[in-house]
């Protein structure tokens, strides 16, 4: 598929945000238990969405790019990769990144089917965990298909859009 500019349409979209601390609710409270959360300290939050046409073939490139791109600010002010920081990674499934405004409503016709998205998301998280093991980076992740609450502390809006 082309987007009219001669370039292939993206099959995945990520938004990357450096953080000092992030906490994500992965299970809402109910009458039997309190909400469940995952948390990271200094590092990076990656919101990820997959579009129609996405396959597992794109995942290694996504993981390599996101873990190695120099987007994190070190204590000396130098921009380094998450692996060089070292920091922690929080992966948040975010299907809404695939939304397009139509009139007053958002439509998500370009997103993959939920079952495909779940499989791609699980594999993406597993590849991230596999890649960072030697670097001492911890990976936490949200629950695909659920609305989740995010509490984010950052030292400035340093957010980037990265498409694949």
Question: What's the layout of helices and strands?
Answer:
Layout: E1 12-19, E2 21-27, E3 36-40, E4 43-50, H1 59-68, E5 72-73, E6 79-80, E7 88-93, E8 100-102, E9 105-107, H2 114-132, E10 139-141, E11 150-153, E12 159-163
Parallel strand pairs: 4-7, 7-10
Antiparallel strand pairs: 1-4, 1-12, 2-3, 2-11, 5-6, 8-9
Helix pairs in contact: 1-2
What are the salient characteristics of this protein?
about 160 residues, alpha+beta, 5-stranded mixed β-sheet, 3-stranded antiparallel β-sheet, 12 strands
Number of E strands: 12
What's the end-to-end separation, in Å? 13 Å
Overall mean pLDDT? 92
| Biggest sheet layout | 5 strands, mixed
Low-confidence stretches: none
Structural class: alpha+beta
H/E element sequence: EEEEHEEEEEHEEE
Radius of gyration (CA) equals 16 Å
Strand order of the largest sheet: 10-7-4-1-12
Helix fraction, binned, reads 10-25%
Number of helices: 2
Percentage of β-strand residues: 25-35%
Shape: globular
Polypeptide structure, described:
By secondary structure, the protein is α+β, with helices and mostly antiparallel strands. The protein contains 2 helices and 12 strands. It has helices spanning 59-68, 114-132; strands at 12-19, 21-27, 36-40, 43-50, 72-73, 79-80, 88-93, 100-102, 105-107, 139-141, 150-153, 159-163. β5 and β6 (79-80) form a beta hairpin. α1 (59-68) packs across α2 (114-132). The longest helix has 19 residues, at 114-132. The model has no long low-confidence stretch (mean pLDDT 92).
């Amino acid at each position: 598929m082309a987007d009219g500019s001669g370039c292939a349409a993206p099959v995945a979209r990520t938004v990357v945000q450096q953080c000092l601390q992030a906490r994500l609710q992965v299970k809402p409270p109910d009458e039997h238990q309190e909400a469940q959360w995952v948390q990271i300290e200094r590092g990076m939050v990656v919101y990820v969405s997959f579009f129609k046409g996405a396959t597992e073939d794109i995942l290694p490139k996504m993981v390599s790019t996101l873990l190695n791109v120099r987007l994190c600010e070190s204590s000396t002010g130098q921009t380094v990769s998450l692996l060089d920081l070292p920091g922690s990674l929080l992966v948040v499934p975010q299907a809404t990144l695939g939304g397009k405004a139509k009139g007053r409503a958002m439509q998500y016709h370009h997103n993959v089917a939920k079952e495909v998205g779940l499989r791609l998301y699980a594999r993406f998280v597993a590849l991230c965990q596999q890649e960072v093991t030697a670097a001492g980076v911890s990976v936490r992740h949200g629950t695909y298909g659920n609305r989740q609450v995010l509490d984010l502390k950052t030292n400035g809006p340093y957010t980037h859009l990265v498409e694949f």
